[in-house]
Specification:
Blueprint: H1 19-50, H2 56-60, E1 85-91, E2 100-103, E3 109-114, E4 117-123, E5 137-140, E6 150-156, E7 166-169, E8 174-180, E9 186-190, E10 195-206, E11 209-210, E12 215-216, H3 225-233, E13 238-242, E14 259-268
Antiparallel strand pairs: 1-6, 2-5, 2-7, 3-4, 3-6, 8-14, 9-13, 10-14, 11-12
Amino acid sequence: MGNVIRCSVRFLQLHNFTELGWKNLLSYIFTLLSILFQVCATVLTLLETSTKVGLLGEKLEIYTDNGLNRIQWKKFGSSSRRPLTWYKTSFDAPEGSDPVVLNLGSMGKGQAWVNGQGIGRYWMSFHTPKARPSQTRYHIPRSFLKRTGNLLVLLEEEMGYPTGITVNTVSITKVCHYVSESHASAAQISCPQNQKISQILFASFGTPLGDCKSYTIGNCHSPNSRAIIEKACLGREDCNINLSKHIFGGDPCPGITKSLLVDARCSRH
């Protein structure tokens, strides 16, 4: 709660003053106001020097290996769940090369660090119109991780359940690209490391309907779309497709801005 300082002066209605008397009164009032403002400024300065922004844990950097032992940690129990609480644990890096994510779906609102590196702020208690969090998994770059003994520290502002946190890997088997010729001249299809494009599930150059989650061919469609994409991309880790009518054997709908939607499957070598 903020500190509020109210500085006020009450003026009294006086009568029968001579011109000299009014001048003396005004001089007296201005002197009082000057003194009053100086007092207020002094009090504000004292408050600014005694009030510090931020949390002690942030100042001590207790989310790092060096700052971890600057405070005394307590063993987690059922009574440990309360707002504005710091939690720490350790975990080993998952095997393999797949992307690593931190699943914070059991938490409320706060911030997470891995080996001193900020993973980001989370807010699970704030739901979308579909009554669910907008994001539950947070990417941990493998460059942040050691093979064993990785430090995870969280500042939970509400009353989340830290025992429900998991470290997972994500296996990407599909890639989708949707681009309009009004925004780019080419589309790039790329699989994750050590994977290649093994199948073209959908391809349409024209006016495809929908998005990467749900799509269908629109009123304008080049019948060569799939064959062109398969020839350029199958068996490769990535490929570039120019959004040109010449690539697709002609303009399927002259005068209309066209797009390319490609949905591909990736497989390991």
